[in-house]
Amino acid sequence: MALHTRDGGFVMPNAWDGLSALMLADAGFEAIATSSAALAATLGRFDGRHNITRDEHLEHARLLGRLTGLPVNGDFEDGYGDTPEDVAATVEAAVASGLAGIGIEDTSGNPDQPIRDFDDAVNRMRSAVDAAKGRIVVTGRTDNFIQGRPDLDDTIRRLTAFAEVGADVLYAPFPPDLDALTAIVTAVAPTPVNVLISPADRVLTVAELQEAGVKRISVGPALYTHAMQSLQQATQALVAGDLTAATTGIGFERISELLARGTN
């Protein structure tokens, strides 16, 4: 929690496998996170549809922590269960697995009604906090903006309620603009706020986000999709017969060096 309360806060990038986690650790980041979307994609599944199990995500998070020795925040969707008791069990399992943080969303996994009712979402957050007992950082997240519900007032209402039941960090991905982000930060202060990259209208710098009062910056699946863009370009070059462009990349000596650090 100390990273969230110091001046300036910190950047917490999201890894998707062992090597990406080792690269982030080698770059000097102080904490990393999983990305439910990136993890699902690596397994050929859709995110947010209950296609990843609690145990699969826990095993993935343990791998990242074991290899890097860094605090790991688990992007654990809706807490992997239909009831508040299920959410509590997920938090307990995350604590037992050595995670430093866990995110719980107000999503449902149901495309027809993707956001849970207010009372249900708050009850689930209360259950998560009660199970955490201060042993793990709990992030309360509402996905209103990315689920087609651009309601700033309801977003602030949900985040405020999450804080009132004890969430340590608050998070609403992609508010429409900097004014909306500032409104969120102001409304929930002094609870720290996480931002996914930036507001929806433009990408800001880390310094600009920190100036707005953001304490934690994550990138979700963005690093994974950046890597996949490079792969797509390489495959297109291969189809065109350009072996040089298709096979130019990081040397395996560098990969072996990073893997050796992880095994040690």
What does this structure look like?
- This protein is 48% helix and 11% strand.
- An eight-stranded parallel beta sheet has the order 1-8-7-6-5-4-3-2.
- Helix 2 (18-26) runs parallel beside helix 4 (54-68) and helix 7 (152-164) runs parallel beside helix 8 (178-188).
- The longest helix has 18 residues, at 222-239.
- Helix 5 (84-96) links the parallel strand 3 and strand 4 (101-105).
- The protein is globular, with a radius of gyration of 19 Å.
- By secondary structure, it is of the alpha/beta class.
- It has helices at residues 2-5, 18-26, 36-42, 54-68, 84-96, 118-132, 152-164, 178-188, 206-211, 222-239, 243-246, 252-263, and strands at residues 10-12, 32-33, 72-75, 101-105, 137-141, 169-171, 193-196, 216-218.
Topology:
Layout: H1 2-5, E1 10-12, H2 18-26, E2 32-33, H3 36-42, H4 54-68, E3 72-75, H5 84-96, E4 101-105, H6 118-132, E5 137-141, H7 152-164, E6 169-171, H8 178-188, E7 193-196, H9 206-211, E8 216-218, H10 222-239, H11 243-246, H12 252-263
Helix pairs in contact: 2-4, 2-12, 5-6, 7-8
Name the features.
alpha/beta, eight-stranded parallel sheet, globular, 8 strands, 11% strand
What's the gist of this structure?
With 264 residues, the chain is α/β, with parallel strands linked by helices. It has helices spanning 2-5, 18-26, 36-42, 54-68, 84-96, 118-132, 152-164, 178-188, 206-211, 222-239, 243-246, 252-263; strands at residues 10-12, 32-33, 72-75, 101-105, 137-141, 169-171, 193-196, 216-218.
